[in-house]
Design brief:
Chain A: This is YdbS-like PH domain-containing protein. The complex is a heterodimer of chains A (about 525) and B (about 180). With about 525 residues, chain A is an alpha+beta fold. Helix content of chain A is about 45%, strand content about 25%. The longest helix of chain B is centred in the middle third of the chain and has 29 residues, at about 60-85. Chain B is elongated and about 70 Å long. The chains are: A alpha+beta (about 525), B alpha+beta (about 180).
Chain lengths: ~525, ~180
C-alpha cells in the first residue's frame, strides 16, 4: 500500500516536471535532478501524439470499406439512404476514435530505469506494469502502413514467459525512439566482452519468391477461396448465381469441370501465397548487432523488426518442407529460449531467421548465425540401422491399409462397386506414395556431432535438421518400444530449454545411440551405462 | 544390484545398456494402479449395463461392448500393475535424478541436479487412500519433466526435501 502511494506521488512529481518543460526528445533536464543513479532515462515519457492520426486513418479505412460493402452489397438501398446511414455512423466512429486515443495517450506513460522498464496506463482501471531489464528477451518493432506513413512504430518488450504480464507494449512511439529503446534494452552482450563482428548476414533476393507457391499455403488458400465465395454468396442471398456457375461447369463434363475448378483454385492459391510471402519477407535483412543480438527486419506493407539475443540461442533448425526440398531450398529457424513458441501465427513466424532460400544460402546463414567455419547442419551424419526402414514402411502401409480396408468393407457389405474400385485404386496409389515417403524418411535419418553441436535429422514431409548446442542440453531421455527392443533400436531425446523443448534422434541402434548420447553430453548417461554378457 | 525378469534391456551379449535405477516404487503402488484401472473400466461398463437393461431393443448392441470392456479391464488390471511395478524404478545419483518408467514403451530419463528447476509432490484422492505420492522433477525444458509415481508419501516428502536442497547447493542457472 505504502509503496504504491509513494510511487503515485513520485509519478505525480514527474508529471509536474514534464509540464514545466522537460524535453522528452533529449530527455535531460538538470533541474529535475531526482535520482542521480537513474540517469537521463528516469523521467516518464509519453507515447507519440501521431498515434492519434494513425488510429484515425485506420478507422477511416474501416469506415470506407464498410460503407462500400453496405452501398454495393445491399442493392435495395438507394444512394441517399446509404449516405444518410453511413456518413453519421462514420463521423461518430471517427470522433470516438479521436477522443479515446487522446485520453489513452494522455493516460499512458512509460519510463526506462537502469534496472527496469515501467508502464502505467488505463482509462478506467489504472494499471502499472514493471518489467525487470534482466528478464527482457526480445524487443520487437511493428509498423503498419498508416504508422509507417506517420513515422511511428509499436514497440513490444517481451520476457518470453508464458503469462500475459510478461510483455509490455508501447503503441506507438516515434520510430527513432523505438530504435533507441531497442538498442538500449538489448545492449547487454557487450558487457560479457564478446561482441562479434557486426554486419549483414543475409539480404532478401527476389528470386526466393519462386519458393512461395510450393508451400502448404497454396492449396489451403485455393480451398479457402471457394469457401469464402460460397459464404459471401450466402450472406447476400446470391446462391442461385453461384449455382448457375456449377451448371455451366456441369456442361464441361466431370473431368473438364473438375480440371477448371482445380486450375482456378491453384491460380488463386499461387497468387495468394506469393502475396503473403511478399508481405512477410520483402525487404528481409538479417544483421548481427554490436549488442549481441540477431535482428531480422522484413515486411512489404507492415514493417517488422525482430531481435533475438545470441546469448539465448541454443542452436538452429534447418527446415525443408517437401515441396521446397524438391527444388533444393530450405528455411532456417532459431532454436532459442525466451521466445514463445505457442500462440498466434505471428509468434511462430518470429523464430524464422531465413525464409525458404537455396540450400547453399541456408547453409551459409547457419554458419554465419552460429559463427562457425562450416554450418553443423551440413556435416556428414551417421545413418541408422536398416531395421528403422522396415518400421517406417510398416507404419506407412498400415496408414494406407486402414482407410482402404474400411472402403472395401463398405463396398462389399452394401454391394457398392464404385467403393471397391476406389479401394483398389487407393491401395495401389496410396501404397506407392507411402513406400516412397517411408524410404525417404529412412534415408533422412541421421545423427552426428559437429564441434559444439549435436546434429539430428529426420522427416520426409517436413525434413528437419537440428543443430543443438551441447551445453544447452538439460536432460536426456532414452525410449524403447517393445518393437524397438526386439530390433535393437532406440530413440534418444535431448531436452533443452529452447525451441520445442526436446529434439530426438529417432530409431538409432541402441548401442550406438547410447555411446553417441554420452559423447554428446558427457556425464549424463555415462555413469549409468553397463555392458552385458 | 538385483536384475529382475523384466530387466532384459536391449538383449544380446556384450551390448551396452542403461542399468536399472536402484529403487523400486512402493509395493502399494500395484494396488493403487489396479484400483485405478478397475475404476476407469467400471464407469463405462456400468453405464452400458444400465442402458442395456433399460433399452430392450438395443440390448445386444450395449451388452457386447460392456462385456468386451469388462474383459479388457480385467486383463489390464491383472497384468499391467505388476509389469509397471517391475519397470518403474528411480534413483538420485550424486549429481542427477534418474528414472525408468513405462511398459510397452520404456523410458529412461536423466536430469542433472544443476538443471533442475522445481521439485513437486502430488497426492490425488486415490493416492491419499493408499498413503502414496508422486514426485515430479522439472527442468527448464517444456518436455523434460521426470515423474516418479507411487512413492510412500513420507518418502516422497523426504525426497522433495533432499532434492530441493541438493538443487540449491548445485550452481548453475538451470538453462
Amino acid at each position: 500500500m505504502n509503496a504504491g502511494a509513494d510511487r503515485e506521488a513520485d509519478s505525480a512529481d514527474h508529471d509536474a516536471d514534464a509540464a514545466t518543460g522537460t524535453d522528452p526528445a533529449t530527455g535531460t533536464d538538470p533541474a529535475t535532478g531526482t535520482d542521480p543513479a537513474a540517469g537521463t532515462d528516469a523521467e516518464w515519457r509519453r507515447l507519440d501524439p501521431r498515434t492519434v492520426r494513425t488510429s484515425l486513418l485506420t478507422v477511416a479505412g474501416v469506415c470506407v470499406a464498410a460503407g462500400a460493402a453496405i452501398g454495393f452489397g445491399i442493392g435495395s438501398m438507394s444512394l441517399f439512404w446509404t449516405l444518410v446511414t453511413v456518413l453519421p455512423a462514420s463521423a461518430a466512429a471517427l470522433a470516438g476514435a479521436v477522443v479515446v486515443e487522446r485520453v489513452r495517450l494522455h493516460k499512458t506513460r512509460y519510463r526506462v530505469l537502469p534496472d527496469r522498464v515501467e508502464l502505467t496506463k488505463g482509462i478506467v482501471v489504472r494499471t502499472r506494469r514493471s518489467i525487470s531489464r534482466d528478464r527482457i528477451r526480445t524487443v520487437d518493432l511493428t509498423a503498419g502502413p498508416p504508422a509507417r506513413f506517420f513515422g511511428i512504430a509499436t514497440v513490444k518488450i517481451d520476457t518470453g514467459e508464458q503469462s500475459p504480464e510478461s510483455s509490455l507494449s508501447l503503441h506507438a512511439v516515434a520510430r527513432a525512439e523505438g530504435e533507441r529503446l531497442r538498442a538500449d534494452l538489448l545492449d547487454r552482450g557487450r558487457r560479457d566482452g564478446a561482441p562479434r563482428g557486426d554486419g549483414r548476414l543475409a539480404t532478401f533476393d527476389p528470386r526466393w519468391m519462386r519458393y512461395a507457391p510450393l508451400s502448404i499455403v497454396t492449396p489451403v488458400l485455393g480451398v479457402a477461396a471457394y469457401g469464402a465465395v460460397l459464404q459471401v454468396a450466402r450472406m447476400f442471398g446470391l446462391e442461385s448465381d453461384v449455382l448457375w456457375v456449377f451448371d455451366l461447369l456441369g456442361r464441361l463434363g466431370v473431368a473438364g469441370g473438375l480440371a477448371l475448378v482445380v486450375a482456378v483454385g491453384v491460380v488463386i492459391g499461387v497468387i495468394g501465397s506469393l502475396g503473403l510471402f511478399a508481405e512477410m519477407w520483402w525487404n528481409y535483412r538479417l544483421d548481427r548487432e554490436p549488442g549481441g543480438t540477431l535482428r531480422v527486419r522484413r515486411g512489404l506493407v507492415t514493417a517488422r523488426s525482430i531481435s533475438l539475443e545470441e546469448q539465448r540461442l541454443r542452436g538452429v533448425e534447418l527446415v525443408e518442407p517437401l515441396g521446397v526440398r524438391t527444388v533444393g531450398a530450405a528455411r532456417v529457424d532459431a532454436v532459442t529460449t525466451g521466445l514463445r513458441t505457442q500462440g498466434e501465427n505471428e509468434d511462430k513466424e518470429r523464430k524464422t531467421l531465413l525464409p525458404a532460400a537455396p540450400r547453399g544460402e541456408a547453409e551459409r546463414v547457419v554458419a554465419a548465425v552460429l559463427a562457425e567455419e562450416a554450418g553443423p547442419t551440413s556435416a556428414a551424419l551417421t545413418r541408422h540401422p536398416v531395421a528403422a526402414r522396415g518400421k517406417r514402411i510398416g507404419w506407412a502401409l498400415g496408414a494406407v491399409a486402414v482407410p482402404v480396408a474400411a472402403l472395401a468393407a463398405i463396398g462389399l457389405l452394401y454391394s457398392w462397386p464404385a467403393g471397391l474400385h476406389l479401394a483398389w485404386i487407393g491401395a495401389v496409389v496410396g501404397a506407392a506414395i507411402a513406400v516412397a515417403l517411408a524410404l525417404d524418411a529412412y534415408r533422412n535419418l541421421g545423427h552426428g556431432l559437429s564441434g559444439d553441436y549435436l546434429v539430428a535429422r529426420h522427416g520426409a514431409v517436413r525434413r528437419s535438421t537440428v543443430a543443438l548446442q551441447r551445453r544447452g542440453v538439460v536432460g536426456l531421455t532414452a525410449r524403447q518400444s517393445l518393437f524397438q527392443r526386439r530390433r535393437g533400436l532406440m530413440t534418444i531425446t535431448a531436452t533443452t530449454a529452447a525451441g520445442s523443448g526436446a529434439y530426438s534422434v529417432y530409431d538409432v541402434g541402441a548401442d550406438e545411440g547410447l555411446v553417441f548420447a554420452d559423447e554428446a553430453v558427457p556425464g549424463l548417461f555415462g555413469p549409468l551405462l553397463e555392458r552385458r554378457g | 544390484m538385483t536384475v529382475g525378469a523384466a530387466d532384459s534391456g536391449t538383449g544380446g551379449a556384450g551390448t551396452l545398456r542403461l542399468r536399472p535405477p536402484v529403487h523400486r516404487v512402493d509395493r502399494r503402488a500395484v494396488t493403487w494402479w489396479r484400483t485405478r484401472i478397475l475404476l476407469a473400466g467400471a464407469a463405462p461398463v456400468i453405464v452400458l449395463v444400465v442402458l442395456g437393461s433399460l433399452l430392450s431393443e438395443a440390448r445386444w448392441w450395449l451388452m457386447v461392448p460392456a462385456v468386451a470392456v469388462a474383459v479388457a479391464t480385467a486383463a489390464a488390471a491383472a497384468g499391467m500393475p505388476m509389469w509397471w511395478y517391475r519397470v518403474h524404478r528411480w534413483e538420485v545419483t550424486g549429481d542427477a535424478v534418474y528414472t525408468r518408467t513405462g511398459a510397452l514403451w520404456q523410458e529412461w530419463r536423466v536430469a542433472p541436479l544443476s538443471r533442475v528447476q522445481t521439485v513437486d509432490s502430488e497426492r490425488g484422492p486415490l493416492e491419499q487412500a493408499f498413503g502414496l505420492a508422486s514426485v515430479t522433477v522439472t527442468t527448464a525444458s517444456a518436455k523434460g519433466a521426470l515423474t516418479i509415481p507411487g512413492l510412500d508419501h513420507r518418502r516422497a516428502t523426504d525426497l522433495v526435501h533432499a532434492l530441493t536442497e541438493a538443487t540449491q547447493a548445485t550452481p548453475g542457472d538451470a538453462t
